[in-house]
Amino acid sequence: MSDARTEHRRGRVRLTVQDAAGRPLPGAEVEVAQVRHAFGFGNIGFDFLPLVGGPAPEGADEVEAFGTAEGIPLPVLEEAYLGLFGQTTLPFYWGRYEPRRGAPDAERLRRTAQWFADRGVTVKGHPLMWHTVTPAWQAELPLDEVESLQRARSRGLTADFAGLIDVWDAINEAVIMPVFDNGANRITDLAAQNGRLATVRLAFEEARAGNPSATLLINDFDLSPAYERLIEEVLEAGIRVDAIGLQTHMHKGYRGEEAVTGILDRFARFGLPLHMTETTLVSGHLMPSHIEDLNDYRIPEWPTTEEGEARQAEELVRHYRSLVEHPSVQVVNYWGLTDAGSWLGAPCGLLRADGSKKPGYEALRGLIRGEWWLAPTTMRADGDGVVEVEGFAGDYRVAQGGDEAGFAVPTGESTAAVRLGA
Q1: Taking every annotated instance into account, which residue ranges of this chain make up the domain GH10 (predicted)?
Q2: Quick one: CA dihedral 312, 72, 340, 63, positive or negative?
Q3: Which portions of the chain are predicted below pLDDT 70?
Q4: Backbone phi, then psi, for 377, in 5-degree steps?
Q5: What residue ranges do the domains of the chain occupy?
């Protein structure tokens, strides 16, 4: 029985099963199974870079990283990742992507992106413009040169990776960008000189020029009215934004359904898809509530605990249910497959540092590949060769013997036909 709270995610297809010549197959016994969700369930793919793409370029290790699952074999990571996720986010932080001027990490990122794409995973790049993790060689450059380089980067990356990576965070954390003090950082200086609106325009227009069909996001952790005002200004200025990115790193504890839904409702008013771009829930002790900037909490060890893992599993289910139930949310991207090398050393991964699955992984699997998934099911066509398929919107397959064909289940009621043996 379907849940009314997720009915807007579901579809019902009257599927006519035909032979290779297009004739219906009355009474045919077929197997139907879901292949992919239309809703975007994702995670970061940072852990795969060294395993698939190869070693980082010279100088990259001098810059902060946000996830490297050292010691966990690729087959373990692959099985866990593909067992849940159909989308991934790969890191294009300027300081690590181009630690030496003119020597970008393009081929390593390309190999990793292709590895995911070959397995049916949609790849997103993060971020094209940000004021953190910037190259050290940029520190003394004049602002006009910095602007020229940023324009070339935003335009060049979307163009060079078009067809492989067509989703990008065009700009990250623009609310704080003009005033953020983190040392020698010319992107903040550029934003302070030009203002937020001009900076956002630069980011989107250059990225759009590189790949006109790309999906481009504005993304921020500041979910206050300041972000709403910036989005209002951006849209009123005619800047095309394809989706709004909302970060929810909950190292200090789950905010609760009421608080999260309130945030979603505030940003849904813009009529754009909402992407929960960076979501975390910890499975150890919670970060002290008085910490304002999460980056200020750095401790030698932050272990996962049995109690914390049980809490994380429960909260993941609550959080994901509330997100899937909200009609404006299109993507949920978790920020950490494993605890190995996780951001701030927090135990926010779905796998422990040794690669074993936490209860949170299994809890999410019960939703994404259980309650919200159609497992292989045998069906018999009626006298007209029709089977009725109901499930969460996405891609499906139908098979008989050695023949199979794919079809889509959109939301709502629809009809379709497939040919087997064609």
Answers
A1: 71-367
A2: negative
A3: 1-2, 61-68
A4: -135, 130
A5: 4-28+381-419, 40-371
DSSP for 282-306 reads: -SSSPPPTT-SSGGG---S-----H
| Residue for token pair 């490297």 | 68
Q: DSSP strand E in 127-254: where?
A: 167-172, 215-220, 243-250
What is the DSSP annotation of 37-77? ESSEEEEE-GGGIIIII-SPPTTGGGS--S---TT--HHHH
Alpha-carbon separation of residue 285 from 318, 348, 352, 374 (angstroms): 19, 11, 15, 36
Residue labelled with tokens 């304002």: 292
pLDDT in tens, 177-234: 999 987 778 999 999 999 999 999 999 999 999 999 999 999 999 999 999 999 999 9
How many Cβ atoms from other residues are within 10 Å of residue 132's Cβ? 19
What is the structure's pLDDT at 124? Answer: 98
Burial of 6 (0-12, 13-18, 19+ CB in 10 A): middle
Q: How many CA atoms lie within 13 A of 244 on its CB side?
A: 25
Q: How many of the other CB atoms lie within 10 Å of CB of 342?
A: 25
What does the alpha-carbon distance between residue 18 and residue 415 come to, in Å, rounded to a whole number?
Answer: 13
Take residue 26 and report the two structure tokens written for it.
Answer: 């009355």
Q: How far apart are CA 17 and CA 14, in angstroms?
A: 10
Chain centroid to CA 298: how far? 25
Q: Which string of b and e fits 60-88 if b means at least 16 CB within 10 Å?
A: beebebbbbbeebeeebbeebbeebbbbb
**Number of Cβ within a 10 Å radius of residue 163:** 8
Question: Is 373 in a helix, a strand, or coil?
Answer: coil
Alpha-carbon distance 216 to 9, whole Å? Answer: 23
Q: Angle at the Cα of 276 (from 272 to 281), degrees rounded to 5? A: 160
Q: Summarize pLDDT for 15-38 with one digit per residue, the tens.
A: 999 999 999 999 999 999 999 999
Residue from 18, 12, 5 nearest 386 by CA: 18
Q: What stretches of 299-350 adopt beta strand conformation (E)?
A: 329-334
Distance of CA 250 to the CA centre of its chain: 17
Exposed e or buried b per residue across 399-420, where buried means at least 16 C-beta atoms within 10 angstroms of its C-beta: ebeeeebebebeeeeeeeebbb
